[in-house]
Amino acid sequence: MQDLPATGFLRLPQVLSVIPVSKSTWWAGVRNGRYPQPVRSLGERITAWRAEDVRALIASVSGPGDQQEAA
Question: Which InterPro entries does the record cross-reference, listed alphabetically (predicted)?
Answer without folding.
Answer: AlpA
